[in-house]
Amino acid sequence: MKMRLPSIVALWAGALLAAASLSAVPKGALLHLPLESRTIVAPIGFQLQPVELRPEVEVVVLFYSASWCAPCKQAAQALRAAYPEIAAAEPRLQLLTYSLDRSADARADYLRTTKFPWPAIAPELVGRGSWPDAIAVGTPSFQAFAVSAQHWRAITAPGEASDVFQQATFQLNQNQSE
């Protein structure tokens, strides 16, 4: 059965940047697992607390964003409105904020103050190992990764929300039919 996410094209499509051939995480590249196995963070009060990806999550979509990025704030408003529908339509997909602010403290402050209704990548990971500290196409942009027990594999290049969510949904439908 084909699952369909809500129309992400309406999700602030006009102002998002198109994908470029160069990116910090090229399609097919592997990222080491964040912290422990499936651990990410969520703002709880003014703290960033470790939380686990839900067991059914097969694909994560990173929302590359930053506190200084005005278009990111516009994209975040559209995401806030669409997120409940996205989460309900496809529980195997998880949106995560990935802050590209300059320091771990700035990334943590951004995540605490924005209080997005979805979790995030731990701020201390940015710039370590295979985790990028910049995105060639700039912010805001999105990128999908297939989740496994060993790593996350980039299944899209960074790009527009509509393209990335469409490709992520296609991947999930492929997984379901196998």
The gist of it:
With 178 residues, this protein is of the alpha+beta class. It has helices at residues 70-89, 104-114, 161-177, and strands at residues 30-32, 39-44, 47-52, 59-65, 93-99, 141-147, 151-154.
Overall helicity: 25-40%
Q: Give the biggest beta sheet.
A: 5 strands, mixed
End-to-end distance, in Å? 12 Å
Number of helices: 3
Mean pLDDT: 81
What count of domains describes the coordinates? 1
Radius of gyration: 15 Å
CATH topology: Glutaredoxin
Walk across the major sheet and give the strand order: 1-7-6-4-5
Shape: globular
Question: How many individual β-strands?
Answer: 7
Share in β-strands? 15-25%
Structural overview:
This protein has 178 residues and is of the alpha+beta class. It has a single domain (27-177), classed as Glutaredoxin (3-Layer(aba) Sandwich). The chain is built from three helices and seven strands. It has helices spanning 70-89, 104-114, 161-177; strands spanning 30-32, 39-44, 47-52, 59-65, 93-99, 141-147, 151-154. The strands form two sheets. It has a five-stranded mixed β-sheet. A two-stranded antiparallel sheet has the order 2-3. The longest helix has 20 residues, at 70-89. It is globular. It starts with 29 loop residues before the first strand and ends with a helix. Mean pLDDT is 81; it is low at 7-23.
